[in-house]
Specification:
The chain is mostly helical. About 55% of the residues lie in helices and about 5% in strands. It has a two-stranded parallel ribbon.
Length: about 100
Amino acid sequence: MSYLRMVFGAFFLLAVIGTVDSVPPGPSPVLAAAEKAAVADLLDINTATADQLKALPGIGDAYSEKIIKGRPYQRKDELVLKKIIPRATYEGIKYKIVAKQK
């Protein structure tokens, strides 16, 4: 029995080592695709229409108009720094927006 355990252990070890060597280094393709999809879902406050901005929680006609008039933005937190929207509203949308540069 001991001999069988050693043989089985050796085969198991070879299988694990072979599997580890066959995995390419770096981020997984699935993770990279998920990250790209997440970035694509972000709303660019420099190019979004008024209707797109109004779809964000806490953003209505007045705030969407102020956001558009305050363009361009270098960073998304300028919405608070320039007193375009209140901090509480920004906290509700900050993970849904981006300020892309051209």
